[in-house]
Amino acid sequence: MRWSPIVLVVLMVLAVWYRAHTFAPDVRAVTGVDLWPRTVGASEPLDCDEAAYAYMGHRVLKGDALYRDLTEYKPPLGYWIYTAAVAAGGYRELAIRLMAIPFVLGTIAAVWWVAGRLGGPIAACLAAFLYILLSTDPFVFGNGSNMEHFINWFSILTLEMTIRGLDRDDRRWLFGAGVALGASAMVKQVALAQIVVILPALLLGRRASGDGAPRGTRRSIGDVLILGSGTALIAGVALAVVIARGAGPAAYQDIVLQARALATDTLPDPNQPSPAVRWLTGNADPKGNLPPPFGTTDYYVWWATGSWPLWLASAPALIYLTIGPRSDSRRRLAAGWTIAAWLQVILPGLYWPHYYLLPTPGVAIAVAVALADAIGSVRRVPSRRWLAGVAAFLLAVAVAGTTALQIRYYLAVPPAELTRRYKGGGQWIVLRQLGRELGRRCAGWDHPRLYVWGWQSPLHFYSGLDSPTRHFFVDNLLRDLADRDHPLIGPRVAEILDTLRRRPPELIFAGYPPFSGLRAFLPAHYRRTRFPGLWVRADVADRFEAPASTSATTAR
Question: I need a labelling partner for 229 at 20 to 30 A (CA). Which of 209, 273, 379, 537 fits?
């Protein structure tokens, strides 16, 4: 096992280099060093989620409070991480790209430990390598800075510390597991789904030493309470901070009521796939065309395109961990944890590609342990040599196949082209260009504002223009029900209109068709521009259309 930590360090260095391909042009520009095979053009731009969260961090650093001044339906920890990244690296693209790396490295280390505990050093190193591939897969937006990277680290720590606590019969580890569980849930509520596996593991766990007898009802209940106290601690601290900022009622509206309504009241998309297959196919495009290999569309390619051999191999690998000849309580816990991660993909009912990052630590562990066991059986168990050899060969092919796909679809593709090919076309590239142009045209104005009716949050980030209202991002529920009598959406629409009338911003971008109130408001006070969807307030329209000043704002 002594060589395994050395391999882990090498793999972590590899992971940093591999992820940096996404922003390699920025690294080249700063350092003059080019270490990547396709460092051409610009770095990949931020997508709407990354830009929205970075914008929130920027606003918090300016004194605004989450929920009270910036409405969003997730708990606060993920936004605080973004705030810390902006504070440390500035309100710029590279800071957001670098932010995810420590969380990915932490997850790699935890995956290495769990796989090593279940299958030995070969499994540990192989799992770490597989997670590098899966966690950077552009088809699931893994090469970006999505909040799933934060959840994965906290969640895998929950699994690791639960195993340590059960192995050593040490409640300090169980308390730590509770803290990690609480932290993952403070990024996204759905991460609490792990509890459906962790609780049975504690209640039905065995003694770590002696005859392996049950640990006793009182001891097991005590373990659950210890873990629960860790979860309650982190949740309580987060709640206290939110309340201290004067955002308690607004947070309840967003995190509890709005989040629940998003899952239950959002109207189905046109031609939406059946729930029976949507978990596998993901979302269809507005015309109803499924992504490859189920159909033909350039809307969003199938989430498993770049790693389907490993996803396919993970199904028998998880079965093997659960009922295989070497299965034990720890292996069954890891398999159940992976299934709980799949539950987190399914529960929101939205099926965006980055949700599929959540099972990737478990997929890496399951395939690595199964392959390491198969290799060991070929060497040590003559009676199973033929079957183990076939299994080892097929799993090795899955590993090699996914490696080849990732080199082809990720490492061999110019960074900015990644978003064009795999993330809905060139929309993020266009928004980066338009945002910078808006910032350039508004340079020197007195605190100009931009309101976006849509998902085009990169306009805020790349222009440097703030929103006049806390409702700076339009989710599907707000979009669909803006003109309907909904108890949550009606007040939000009224608040948006009231703010626009009291403090009309210089610019309004209608990314979605405007709701009725906005549709009447725009032509009365604004002029259309040559940029589709963009309106400029009438009293500053001539100034906006005039040749822009050369004293442009610094490009982000």
Answer: 209
State the burial class of residue 400 (Cβ atoms within 10 Å of its Cβ: 0-12, 13-18, 19+). exposed
Per DSSP bridges, beta strands 507-510 and 534-537 are antiparallel
Domain ranges of the chain: 3-415, 427-545
Give the dihedral of Cα atoms 53, 54, 55, 57; nearest 10 deg.
90
What 8-state DSSP symbol labels residue 512? S
Write the pLDDT tens digit of every residue in 198-245.
999 998 876 544 445 566 788 889 999 999 999 999 999 999 999 999
Retrieve residue 318's tokens: 């998880």
* Rounded percentage of the chain residues whose pLDDT exceeds 90: 81
Rounded CA-CA distance 105/149 in Å is 10
User: Are the beta carbons of 19 and 143 closer than 8 angstroms?
Assistant: yes
pLDDT given at position 282 = 86
Q: How many residues belong to the chain? A: 556
Q: Report yes or no: 79 and 56 within 8 Å, Cβ to Cβ.
A: yes
- Tokens read off for 430: 């266009």
Quote the CA–CA distance of 179 and 171 in Å, as a whole number: 12
Peptide bond into 200 cis (omega under 30): no
Q: Which DSSP symbol is given to 484?
A: S
